[in-house]
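ugh finaly. both done.
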Amino acid sequence: MNKALELRYMAECVWDTLAYLYDRLSLRKHLKFRVVNKDLVFEPETADLLRIPIFLNDLLDVMKNVFRRLQFTVLEQEEVVSYVIRGKVDVKRSAKYFPQALSVRRQLITIETPANLLLAATAIEVYEKLLNVYNRLVSSPVSSAMQPLRDLAVRRISDALTFAWVIMQDPVVRQLLRSAKELVLRPEKLDRLEREVWNEARLRPREFGAYVELLKLRERLRKPLAATTLEGVKEALAIDLTSGKLYELYCFTKLLYILVEQLEVKDAKLNQDDRVLKIDARYGDKNVQLTISYNVIPKSVKSRVQEAEAKGLLGDGVSPSVLKGLPDTIIKVESDSKNVVIIVDYKYSRATNYLTEARFKALAYLYEFNANGVVIMSPSPTGKDKEVEDEEVEDQSKFYTSIKGYGGAKLFINKNREGKFLIFAYINPEKEKEDRNAEIMRKIMEIMLQQIK
C-alpha cells in the first residue's frame, strides 16, 4: 500500500474508532489531542453526522413496514358535471344546474394522511440537510494531511444523498412530496404534525404499529441532524496534521479500542482539561482504574528529571521542570495490590535507524518515569535509511528486520523475566493487516494487565 492510501486508511480508522469509543465509554466531553501548540478535537456530533447513512437504512425498513399497512383516507368530493357521470347524483343540488349539468358526489381514496406526510417529510428533511452539509464540506478549507478525513466525510454523505434520493423516488412517497415539502419549510407545523401522529399512535396502537417505528426513528435522527452545522469538523479539517501524527492517532485509538474490549468498563471520564482519560473497570476478579494520556503527562505519573535537584555550576537559579520527557502515550493501571505504568511511543517509519533511536528513548523513559515497560510501535521495517552511516544502526538493523515474522518482540530487561520490559510491535496501517494488528495489541494488553495479577 502506498503512503497516500495509508494516510486515507488511517484517517478513516481514527474517525470510525473514535465514534465507537464515544458511544462505548459514554463520554460526555470531547477528548483533546495535542498537536504541537493546537488541539485536535473529534466532536461527538461529527460521529453522529457520519451515522446518518445507517439511519437511512432504518428509514427504508420503516417504509417497507408502512407500505404493508399503508393508511388511506376516504374523501367525499362534489362535482358539477355535464356529460360523464361518475358517482351518486345529488338530486336536491342538481335542480340548480339542470338541465345543463348535474351535481354529483363521489368518494376518493387518498394516502395523504398525517402519518404518511410525516414519512415523506422525514425523507425530505434528511436529504436537504445532507445536501447542505455536502455543499459546505466540499468548500471548507482543509490541510493536506487531513484531506483523507474530509474525503471520508464527503464520500459517506454523497452515498447517503443518493440513498435518500432513491427513497424519495418511491411511487408512494412521490405522491406526498409537494405537501410534505411545505411542512419541512415550516418546522413548527411539522412539529405539530408529529405530535398529532404520536397522539393517534397512543390511541390506536394496532393501526399505527408501523408508524410508531417511524416516530422512534425521528427521535434518533434529531441529534445527527443537529450535527449538520459542521463547526467542529471544519475546525478539525483545518489543522495541519503530519503523517507521523496521524499514525500516532491511528495506533492510540486502536490500542484504546483493544484495551476497552478486554475490560468490563464501569465508568469513564476526562480529566486535566479533557486530555487524560480515566476508566474504572473490572479485569478478572480485580477492580482496576486506568489513566490513559496522549502527549500529556498525567498528574499521578512523576518524572525523575522534572523533580531533580538542580543547581548552576557557578550559582543557583536553575529549574529542570521543562526537561521532562513527553511520551506519546502513558497508561497507568492501578489496583488494590499494585500499580503499573506502561509507556507507548509511535514511529511512522520503516527505517531501522529510527528504531535504534527509539530504543534509546524508550530506555530513557523506562528510567525517568520508573515505568514497568515501554512499547515502541512502528510499521514493519524494510532496512536502514541509505543516507545514514552509523555503526550502531548497521549492527542492529538485522535484529529489527528479523523479528517481522513474529509481529515484533519482547525484551526482558531482567533475565528472570520479572520486572521491566521493552516491546517492539509492528503495526501496519493496512486493511489486510487489521486482524494481525489486533492480535499484536491484544498480546501487549495481556502482558500489561498481567502485571497487576
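ok and the 2nd:
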Amino acid sequence: MRDGRFVAKGSPMDKPQARTKVGDVLFVRVGVGCIGRAAAVLHDDETGIADDYLYILRFRSDQMLPEVSALLTQTQFFKQQLERCKRGTGTVTVPQRLLREILVPVPPMSVQHPFAEAYRKIHYQYRSGLSEASELASLVSKLERVLMGCRVVVHCLQIALNATDRQSPGEAQKTTHCSPSGTIRA
C-alpha cells in the first residue's frame, strides 16, 4: 500500500489464489523484454494481489530457497530453456505447463544459504536506494560459476514447487553438472 492503491477484501479483484506471501517468487510470464524476470517476496509490505501477468511460484522449503530460485531464473541455463518455451509473436507468453517442465539445478542448502543472504542484502540496499542492477547481475554470474563446479540435483520445476508435495522426492530428479549452454551432462 505504499502508493495508496489496494484491493479491498471481498471485492471482485480479491482472488485468494492471487494473494502473495513472504517466500513467494513472482515470475513475469508475459511480455517481450519482461518475460522471465523474477523477484522473491521478502517482506510483508511487498505482499498483495498479483496481477495476471505474473505466476506465483512457491517452492518446497526443504529443496529451494526463494531468493535462490529468483536468482536461478536469471541464469543462462534457465533463460535458454525459457526461450524454447515462449509462445506467441506480438505478445509472447510462457504457458504454465511448459514452465513446469524447465529443468532447475537445485544446489545443496550449504550452497543456497550464502546466495540467499547476498540476495537479501542487495534487496535491502535496493529498497533503500543504495544498490544497482549490476550487483544483482554479478551475483547471478557468481551463482552460474558455482553451479558449474558442483554436483547438483536437477528437477523439473514442477518437482521443486510446493504444489507437488505429494510426489516422491526422488521422482524426476537427476544428479548432474550444468553447462553454460543450457544442457545437462550426467
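summary for the 2nd one i guess: The radius of gyration is 17 Å.
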